């Protein structure tokens, strides 16, 4: 791929074509990648400014990334935290609960990792495991699921009232695209570790997952804590748009000074809405 420095040194179209030929790069793809890297850099710089604002104003921010496997949650989180101060930011990716945690109130272990004053935390999955994955896979009882669904709006309202800003992303992916990405993982020794039996089961239980997902949206999409849907057909675009959305939620010193485009694309990222069955985007 091209680097930003290489493109800066290019003066003519002929030089660009020669460089592309030397590096065996398809020109259109290479230029798109370079543009993505440049835009990502600008947005990450804006995010660093936002982090300074969060520290100064002693805000508490939790950004939740949910979605089916292979939708790109981890890749996006990586771009969020890449250049942030690790002392006031972090990634939360809890493993399965211990025996002790299974005997606690379900939300308890999540409360313990919520952001403190001046911090921004990124959740690679969250308490919403109990809304979709757990009931579909049989990891919780129907009664536990019912209790969770009754409590979660009130739980999030308490966070809201206490001043914690919660941003909820759902990274959306089609069944065919998910299978394509699974196949890519299995054919790449460096990514094979990402594939698990649960992933395979997710394809088999796609419709069941969809049913619980829609029920989750209907019951937990609120004015104080809405679901933001991110179309992940193009992973790079999803990363940029989710960054833009987080930045759009705050006013901070120096906002826009990088000249980055801070306007989100409504065709890629939008609040949840119930789509009529006859309506096809």
From TrEMBL:
Its EC number is 2.7.4.-. GO terms for molecular function: polyphosphate kinase activity. The keyword Ubl conjugation does not apply. Pfam families: PPK2 (PF03976). Belongs to the polyphosphate kinase 2 (PPK2) family. Class I subfamily. This is ADP/GDP-polyphosphate phosphotransferase. It comes from Aquiflexum balticum DSM 16537. Residues 32-255 form the Polyphosphate kinase-2-related domain. One of its GO terms (biological process) is phosphorus metabolic process. Homotetramer. Keywords: Coiled coil, Kinase, Transferase. Uses inorganic polyphosphate (polyP) as a donor to convert GDP to GTP or ADP to ATP. It is an enzyme of class 2 (transferase). InterPro entries: P-loop_NTPase (IPR027417), Polyphosphate_phosphotransfera (IPR016898), PPK2-related (IPR022488), PPK2_PA0141 (IPR022486). NCBIfam families: PPK2_P_aer. Residues 33-60 form a coiled coil. Gene3D superfamilies: P-loop containing nucleotide triphosphate hydrolases.
